């Protein structure tokens, strides 16, 4: 095989196998990183979801920033909803049906506005409106919500007036007077100690790490296939170049010789 590796043709095959192996390893590392991200998301959920609520200013000291490690942390807010600034988040699925999430800005007693996703409401058949209007409470209210990061904008998706396609916090804050939290918003847990009746609040998500570990192992195994194919090709070529085996001389017994003599006689 070392003789073949001196030939440019086989050196090219080895180079192609190396490029293929590098690509497979990169995909394997990518799948491994995705698994690490999934495990981190599971850890955040398990660590934060059932914690006791803390003041929103304590969980988010800077309204313009958000620490991803704080996701799912319950926060408590005191103030009132800005009913005139309420929006409908379109295209949200629940139990196999499409509807809206009710997005309600909430002005805290400190004067800062925090965006609350109050929950899901069904969409009227064939209409761009919910079946019923949300009954968001007016006046002083105490809200508990779990933190979620800003969704940002979704390119190519629009919405009619009064509706939005995603929770893009900076865009929502542009139409609200005063400072607003633009790094995170909250999924409603309760209002004045009870779950609302007009919407279906978000339930605890079920997270798993997915098949990323098996995909990682598969990509690393694939990386070896290129070299295995080159080795097999070299072996087959060496077999074809080998001289044919010499015929084996058969040893004959005395009886065989006597039989030949008698046959010729």
Automatic annotation (TrEMBL):
It is found in: Cell membrane; Membrane. Residues 237-265 are annotated as: Disordered. Signal peptide: none annotated. The keyword Ubl conjugation does not apply. Its main location: membrane. Pfam families: SURF1. GO terms for cellular component: plasma membrane. The chain crosses the membrane at residues 12-30. Keywords: Cell membrane, Membrane, Transmembrane, Transmembrane helix. It is a multi-pass membrane protein. Residues 256-265 have a biased composition (Acidic residues). InterPro entries: Surf1/Shy1, Surf1/Surf4. Belongs to the SURF1 family. PANTHER family: SURFEIT LOCUS PROTEIN, SURFEIT LOCUS PROTEIN 1. This is SURF1-like protein.
């Amino acid at each position: 095989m070392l003789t073949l590796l001196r030939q440019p043709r086989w050196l090219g095959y080895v180079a192609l196998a190396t490029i293929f192996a590098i690509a497979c390893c990169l995909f394997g590392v990518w799948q491994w990183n995705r698994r690490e991200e999934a495990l981190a998301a599971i850890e955040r959920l398990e660590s934060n979801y059932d914690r006791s609520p803390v003041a929103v200013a304590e969980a988010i000291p800077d309204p313009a920033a958000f620490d991803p490690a704080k996701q799912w942390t319950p926060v408590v807010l005191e103030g009132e909803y800005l009913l005139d600034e309420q929006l409908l988040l379109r295209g949200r699925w629940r139990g196999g049906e499409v509807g809206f999430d009710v997005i309600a800005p909430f002005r805290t007693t400190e004067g800062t506005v925090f965006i609350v996703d109050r929950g899901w409401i069904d969409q009227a058949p064939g209409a761009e409106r919910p079946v019923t209007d949300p009954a968001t409470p007016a006046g002083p209210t105490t809200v508990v919500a779990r933190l979620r990061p800003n969704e940002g904008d979704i390119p190519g998706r629009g919405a009619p007036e009064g509706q939005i396609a995603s929770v893009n916090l900076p865009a929502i804050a542009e139409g609200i007077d005063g400072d607003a939290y633009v790094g995170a918003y909250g999924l409603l847990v309760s209002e004045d100690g009870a779950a609302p009746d007009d919407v279906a609040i978000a339930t605890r998500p079920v997270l798993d790490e997915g098949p990323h570990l098996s995909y990682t192992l598969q990509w690393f195994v694939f990386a070896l296939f290129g070299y295995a194919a080159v080795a097999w090709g070299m072996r087959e070529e060496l077999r074809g170049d080998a001289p044919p085996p010499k015929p084996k001389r058969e040893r004959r017994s005395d009886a065989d010789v006597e039989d030949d003599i008698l046959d010729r006689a």
